Amino acid sequence: MYWLLGGIILLILLMIAGHRASKVAWAHPIVNWVDGLVRLLCKYIHRLPATYIPLPTEGAAIVVANHISGLDPLLLIAASRRPLRFLIAREEYERPVLHWLFKAAGCIPVDRKGRPELALRQALRALQNGEVVALFPHGKIHLDSYPPRKIKGGVTRLAAWSSAPIYPVRIDGVGAAGHVALAPFYPSKVRLTINEVVSCHPQQLAECLAKITLAIETPEPV
Questions:
Q1: 3 state SS for the chain
Q2: Residue 115: inside a domain, yes or no?
Q3: Residue 96 within a domain
Q4: What is the largest CA-CA distance in the chain?
Q5: Considering the chain, what is the average pLDDT of its residues?
Q6: Which of 85, 91, 114, 148 has its CA 20 to 30 A from that of 33?
Q7: Residue 192 belongs to a domain with what CATH number?
Q8: Quick check: 143 and 178 in contact, CB under 8 A?
């Protein structure tokens, strides 16, 4: 009986804490609550300093980052004052239980073995509607110690088609780098480096891709 009462009290406290810590109006109130919990997790478990991506208050934008763990999307959420529509692998998007949350948060599933261009079209529509799209252009977890991996060019095409600015973010200091499920709960001292905004023109996609690569692959000096 006591454990049940304790569980109920803990749930109520989490609901209050998540509601108070939420900074963004997502499309669903439960996602707003999760937003608050994510910010608390990043602040107290991963010691993320007050860091904000300087997104415009309205209008299209693209956020890109290196991908080193399952914590990465949560860090970008914690550093944003606007909802982020993540491109996510379809096999992750369709995971039981999490599927509802991903859908409510506006994630865009990418069918990497079928027709990935469908996800680009959906992302383009989101940008044309003035939303913020977030993605990890390496396409999978890639640590600095891994062999070089060329980042995918879809981000530059999206930017050129939509005229949306790109905000490159470099993630460092994740305690469980290389892990997915463990990373959000393993204590860290995370650092986010917000790099210079990149604009892509249709005739300069290779140059644009090189700028993004340099921004997200260059470690921050410690």
A1: CHHHHHHHHHHHHHHHHHHHHCCCCCCCHHHHHHHHHHHHHHHHCCCCCCCCCCCCCCCCEEEEECCCCCCHHHHHHHCCCCCCEEEEEHHHHCCCCHHHHHHHCCCEEECCCCCCHHHHHHHHHHHHCCCEEEECCCCCCCCCCCCCCCCCCHHHHHHHHHCCCEEEEEEECCCCCCCCCCHHHCCCCCEEEECCCECCCHHHHHHHHHHHHHHHHCCCCC
A2: yes
A3: yes
A4: 68
A5: 93
A6: 91
A7: 3.40.1130.10
A8: yes
Query: Cα separation of 187 and 175, whole Å?
Result: 6
CA 19 vs CA 37, 154, 184, 220: distances in Å: 8, 35, 20, 33
CB 158 within 8 A of CB 123: yes
Report which of 124, 201, 203, 215 is spatially closest to residue 167, judged by C-alpha positions: 215
User: Structure pTM?
Assistant: 0.94
Query: Which structure tokens are listed for 55?
Result: 């997104």
Domain of 154? 49-217
Domain count, the chain: 1
Whole-number Å distance between alpha carbons of 203 and 169: 24
6 lies in some domain: no
Residue 64: inside a domain: yes
Q: What would the pLDDT profile of 110-132 be if each residue is shown by its tens digit? A: 997 778 889 999 999 999 999 99
Under a CB-based contact definition with an 8 Å cutoff, are residues 166 and 214 in contact? no
Per-residue pLDDT tens digits for 14-28: 778 888 999 999 999
